[in-house]
Every structure is written in C-alpha cells, then in structure tokens.
Amino acid sequence: MDRYVGEPVTGSASDGRAAAPERELRDRVRESRRVERGAFDMPFFLLTLLILTIGVIMVLSASFARAYYYGGNATYFFVRQLGFALFGVVLMLVASHVTPAFMRSVSLPFLLFTWVLLFMVLIVGTGGEEVGANRWLDLGFVQFQPSELAKIAEILFFATLICTYKDKMKTFKYGVLPFGIVIGITVLLLYFEPHLSASVIIIALGAIMMWAGGTRWQYFAVGGAAVGAVGYLVVTKMAYASARITAWLDPWSDPLDSGLQTIQSLYAIGSGGLLGLGLGQGRQKYMYLPEEHNDFIFSIVCEELGFVGAMLILVLFALLIIRGYWLAVHARDRFGALVITGITSLLAIQVILNVAVVTNLVPCTGISLPFFSYGGTALLLQLAEMGIVLSVSREIPLRRSKSDGGEK
After folding, report:
1. Rama region for 299: left / alpha / beta (φ>0; ψ in -120 to 50; rest)
2. Quick one: average pLDDT of 57-72?
3. Nearest 5°: phi and psi at 215?
4. Residues 40, 37: Cα–Cα separation, whole Å
5. Would the pLDDT of 339 be above 90?
6. pLDDT at residue number 208
7. Averaged over 51-68, what is the pLDDT?
8. What is the pLDDT of residues 160-187, one digit of tens each?
C-alpha cells in the first residue's frame, strides 16, 4: 500500500530509501508554499501609509481648538489618534499574515458574533440623546460600534457563500435567498439602534458582492425596487431621517439647528478657494462647524488645503481603490478576489458618501472619512481590513525572474 505524504517513516533501510522521494516531495511542497506566500503588495501598503499620515496630521489641525476649549490640552485628540494609528499599522502587518483559508473558516462564527454584539447594543448600548441613537458598546476602556465589525463580517461570509455555491449563484435559492436573509437580519438590528447610514452601506456592499459573485441582474432590479420602497417608508416614518432630508433640500430653512452643520461645511469649503488658507489656518474649526475632526474633517481639508489639496487627497484615495481592484483581478482564487473586492468597495463607498455629505450632494449621514476622521477603534478596523487585502496579495503567484532558473 502506498504511504501517504506526511506519514511517519519506520521500518528497514529499504523503507527509508523508498521514503526519500516522499521527503523530497514534502520539502518541495513546503518550498512552493513559501514562494506562493510571498511579500505583500508594496504599492498598496505605501499608499495606505501615506493617506494615514496625512489623515493624522489633519486630525491635529482640525481638532486642536475643540480639544483646548473642552480640556485645556490642544493635542488630546491628536495624541490618541496617533497612538491608534501606530498600533493600527502593527495590526495591519499582523493581519497581512492571516491566511485566506483561516478567514474562510471563521467567517460564519464571526458573522454570528457581530449579530450578538448588535443585539447587545439594543440592550446596553450607549450614545443616547447626544447623537439621537444608541450605537456604541462601552467596554470601560474603549467604545466601539459593532456595525463596523458587521461590514467586514458580511464581506468574509458572502465571499465564503459565493465560493460554496459557485455555479448555483444564478438561482434564487442559492444566489439571492441566503444573502437576503443575512442582509435582512443585519439591517433589522441596525434599524432599531437606529443607524441608517450603516444600513445603507450593508445593503450596497451586499449588492456589490452578489454582483461580483454572479447573481442575475434581474434579481437586482426587483430587489432595488423593494429596497427603494422600504427606504421611502423608513424615511417618512423616522423623524430624524425626515429632518435630514429637509435640511439637505434647504439647509437655510433651519440654520441654527438641522441645517447648521451643512451650512458651516459649505462655508469652510468655499473659503478655501483654490489653494486654501494654509495648514492650521482654518476658521470653521473654532467651534463653528460641528464634528470638524470627525465626519466633517474633509471640510477642514478643503478650507486649509484648498481645491488643489483636496483633489490630491482624493487622487490618493482613487489610486488606493484602483490598486485594490487590480489586486482583486489578479488574486489567486475566487475567495481572495471577492474579499479584496468587498473591502475595496467598502472603502470606496465610505469615501464617496463622506465627500458627498460634506458638499451637500446627499443628506447628512454619520459616515466617517477612512483614515482621516477621528475614532480609534474605527481606524484600527480600517487598517486591519487593509491588512487582509495585503494578506490576499501574498497569494498572487510571483513571476519568476530568469535568475530563479525559470519554471520548475
């Protein structure tokens, strides 16, 4: 009987000689795996670091007035964000070593865990009247939004489902129903917080993953109509959502309350002009613009760096997103390609929606600008997601140079 590779070798010398080819085969397999798990994609890594560095600097510029006013320490937000950024880079490097096989194996438990956390928010969540919703879990030493975990959990689980069902994705039973159930449960939990912006991202992200997985376009037409109808009912029934629509259409109808943030944001963007007022020289951060170091930090970017500086930052984001999709196209397997597609799409959605909000192209929502907006746990998760992309990039087959001796 043939001996399996990896089985202990015992017996006579002849057995040892017979096992020699097997040992050589195992060595070649290990060597092959080392080659296949090569270095991560350096352009994606460097672009992430560059955007992160600019973002941390902008947190210092945007937050020092508010930090000094409330605590007497102008660098309070900056020091915390810098600490999270440094720790996040370490986390990104650690995540870059997590194999896609492991991600796939934990995708279902991770999704269930995020549902438990979202349910806990409904019971012991914090936020309350200050933001009009309970979206955070307070662990004593840190607060975080489980909705951020739900996004990456959806990506990993949907990638696993698509790879499991493969050619069955064009059927309703396999290509729509299980995905709709996952999206429905997640959005239902978010609805009771309430967290409309996260719900929008979850739905959009799920649709992108299903489209990439091969779901028929006819189902998207029906699903889009259904989501639109439900969205209309939600907006008309939820007071805070209706107020945001009104403020979006005419922010000057209530300039001291619901329209204040949008008006001050537009003042900041307009006063920046072509080249800006200069780094640290903005005026709207002096307690005029709410959330100037968080969701509306891009307004400060426009005010201080001008149109040119803001566009350069958007170009960097565009390059990072394009590089992410390039890695998805060149990924070794379908799971890796889908994971990168999901994470890159999540990044693109958040950047587009945040910029659209601060410029009043869409109603005001609580969507932060990745790597820029203040928030430690959100920054850690974003860098961990970049680490997952880097991990999959290690699986991209390396082109052997002539110095390697050609193909083996």
Report:
1. alpha
2. 94
3. -65, 140
4. 8
5. yes
6. 96
7. 96
8. 999 999 889 999 999 999 999 999 999 9
339/341 Cα distance (integer angstroms): 5
Asked if residue 1 has pLDDT above 50, the reply is no
* pTM (2 d.p.): 0.87
Sign of dihedral through CA atoms 215, 221, 222, 226? positive
Q: For residue 49, give the amino acid letter.
A: L
Answer for the pair 283, 399: CB distance below 8 angstroms, yes or no: no
CA 352/CA 359 separation, integer angstroms: 11
> In which band, very low, low, confident or very high, does the pLDDT at 128 lie, cut at 50, 70 and 90?
low
Contacts of 390 (CB under 8 A, 6+ apart): 40, 41, 44, 45, 92, 95, 96
End-to-end CA distance of the chain: 29
Compute the distance between CA of residue 172 and CA of residue 180 in angstroms, rounded to an integer.
Answer: 10
Helix 100-124 vs helix 146-165: crossing angle, to nearest 10: 140
pLDDT for position 23: 63
Question: Shortest CA distance to 179 belongs to which of 207, 199, 151?
Answer: 207
What Rg, from alpha-carbon coordinates, does the chain have?
Answer: 24
Average per-residue pLDDT for the chain: 87
Q: Could you tell me the pLDDT band of residue 2, with boundaries at 50, 70 and 90?
A: very low
Residue boundaries of the structural domains of the chain: 99-367
DSSP 60-74: HHHHHHHHHHHHS-T
Helix-, strand-, coil-residue percentages of the chain, each rounded to 5: 70, 0, 25
The CA distances from residue 274 to 16, 277, 302, in Å, are: 76, 9, 9
CA distances from 262 to 110, 163, 214, 291 (A): 37, 43, 39, 11
398 secondary structure, DSSP code: P
Task: State yes or no: pLDDT of 401 exceeds 50.
Answer: no
Look at the alpha carbons of 206, 210, 211, 216 in this order and tell me if their dihedral is positive or negative.
negative
Phi and psi (nearest 5°) for 258? -65, -25
Angle between helices 297-329 and 376-393 (to 10 degrees): 20
Residue of 61, 16, 11, 52 whose CA lies nearest to 304? 61
Percent of the chain with pLDDT over 90: 66
* Distance from C-alpha of 278 to C-alpha of 272, rounded to nearest angstrom: 9
The Cα 260–Cα 245 span in angstroms is 14
